[in-house]
């Protein structure tokens, strides 16, 4: 199953990436980033949308006391910085490369508006994507504020199943092949890595999950 934030059957690089268009190809290039490189900072001018060709990107912000809050970790085929489409002038979040070889395709907001104006289906899907992300973020913040860590883990596993899961015919398990590390997931649900690991081991003892580095098997119904 494709990640739910991927634009359904649209190939982003065929439709959006400027190097596919003659008028932009000569002047367009991918941007390369190493681990912990910032793609943009909070308060930077918002004049581009970004497509991930390779690697992972962390989206977040810092509290007044300097604590990092992670809003999302995105992977190949996904877009970020999309609030610029809605008229955001300055960034309210940072974007940072999580991998040592992240490749990003930047798209000027003006070019994106032209593409959306010429393609109604693309326009509708991008607005749906933005709406979905807002709802998911609201839900995740609600869980962090009002639910215990075990509930947050269980709900996030269900979210992963929606994005990356498929049913194993032999066992009936939901198999989740995902791009996240334990540290990534702990950041996303507002807990520590040891706490997340302890909860997952408890679920494993209860025969509710089985897991390895890049795969989780859910034994409970989602």
From TrEMBL:
Domain HTH crp-type, residue spans: 147-222
PROSITE patterns: CNMP_BINDING_3 (PS50042), HTH_CRP_2 (PS51063)
Any one GO cellular component localisation term in the record: cytosol
Lineage top rank: taxon: Bacteria
MF term (GO), any: DNA-binding transcription factor activity
Keywords: DNA-binding, Transcription, Transcription regulation
Listed InterPro entries: cNMP-bd_dom, cNMP-bd_dom_sf, Env_Response_Regulators, HTH_CRP, RmlC-like_jellyroll, WH-like_DNA-bd_sf, WH_DNA-bd_sf
Domain Cyclic nucleotide-binding residues, every copy: 12-91
Matches recorded under PANTHER family: CRP FAMILY TRANSCRIPTIONAL REGULATORY PROTEIN (PTHR24567), REGULATORY PROTEIN YEIL (PTHR24567:SF26)
Name of the protein in question: Transcriptional regulator
